[in-house]
Amino acid sequence: MLANPPPDTLAAAAGVRAGDTVRAIDGESIATWQELRWRVLQAALQRQSAQLETLDERGHIAMVALDLSGFPSADVETDVLEKIGLRLYRPPLEPVLGQVLAGGAAERAGLMSGDRILRVDGSPIENWDAFVNAIRSHPGSELSIAFERAGSEHRAQVVPDAVSAGNARIGRIGAGPRQPEAYAEKLVIRVQHGPLASLGRAAAKTADIALFSLKMLGKMLIGEVSWRHLSGPVTIADFAGQSASLGWVSYLTFLALISISLGVLNLLPIPLLDGGHLMYYAIEIIKGRPVSERFMELGQRVGLALLLVMMAFAFYNDLNRLLTG
Q1: Tell me: the pLDDT tens digits for 108-134?
Q2: pTM of the model
């Protein structure tokens, strides 16, 4: 189920409303938020329109067209659905701090778990989303926060840390909301399949990701997609740690994604890779004789140069992400 899209977003312009449930995209049924994110990401990268079939709270079915032809390719590294304005509906939470990260702006200001936020710079805070919006819109600026602790009102001066979110800078204080019991379970949809159906869906998903990786490489070569999306070992290690912190399912999913990406790269027709050897075998079958040693030597040099260039781009992007946050 979707929340109300922010104004001046593609979703708002397309007519998406709070309470709409996305049933299918481009005629293909979807059941989870991850499936919606994957399909919209593909359409955004290919700059195609996406047709959403939605069901409102009254049971009326409608078609919503998202025009992604002008979606900036640089924004695919951010939350694409958030940029478009597609937000997952969440029941409103009270503005009460739950987890407070060590070393964060909230801890430095003296805020603690259980504190109820009352006002930010004099503006009343009714729910957690209002508090988040106030923090995000003031990166690096001092805010006066009134909060309630043990029945008494207190004040704290908080300076949200400025972090990058795509091309924008937002504020964060390193705190999360206190969630009621079973709150998370209400937001989770569990989809299960039998063994045979799972194998079929796994094969289809693998082919889909492999084809998508090839399309991305092709768009990088012709300049439609930035080389900034190429990642190296530093970024891989970073995401591996993040996925491991979310649980073993997320970690195994990340390993599967990396395995598919490496498999696609290894099968490219580049000398020094397995795909290059397959290319030589194909030429030998067509010609009826092996390729010359001179041709193989030139191929090895070209292949080595291509791999070095790709590695250089990957390491540069890793260092750039590491230094710029």
Answers
A1: 999 999 999 999 999 999 998 889 989
A2: 0.59
CATH number at residue 71: 2.30.42.10
Query: How many separate domains does the chain show?
Result: 3
Residue 92 forms part of a structural domain: no
Range of the domain at 121: 97-182
**Angstrom distance (rounded) from CA 212 to CA 18:** 31
Pair 173, 106: CB distance under 8 Å: yes
Helix (H) or strand (E) holding 182: none
Q: Both 264 and 236 in a single domain?
A: yes
Output the six-digit token pair for 293: 């040693």
Which backbone phi and psi does 32 adopt, to 5 degrees? Answer: -130, 165
Residue whose tokens read 């569990």: 190
Residues 6+ apart with CB under 8 A from 236: 258
Whole-number percent of the chain with pLDDT over 70: 93
| 3-class secondary structure, 145 | strand
